[in-house]
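Q: Structure tokens for this one, please.
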Amino acid sequence: MSKIKRFLLGEDDPRDVELTLAALAEYGPANEVVVVGNGEQVLDYLHRRGELSTRKEGNPVVVLSLTVES
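A: Here is the predicted structure, written as tokens:
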């Protein structure tokens, strides 16, 4: 039996979140994907601080941050 691994996605554009989740669902393995809105929240998630201090135990196996400067 395989254990579902957690991915962490840091992205503030809802369209990019939707596209990324669709791609992961179509081409990636079945994983839990946690979505946060920015890089600061990614760090809060990883360090279990602030509003994310009560999240589930364990760190994600993959961290994706899709920030693109224009």
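A few notes: Residues 8 and 63 are 5 Å apart (CA to CA). The domain at 6-65 is CATH 3.40.50 (Rossmann fold).
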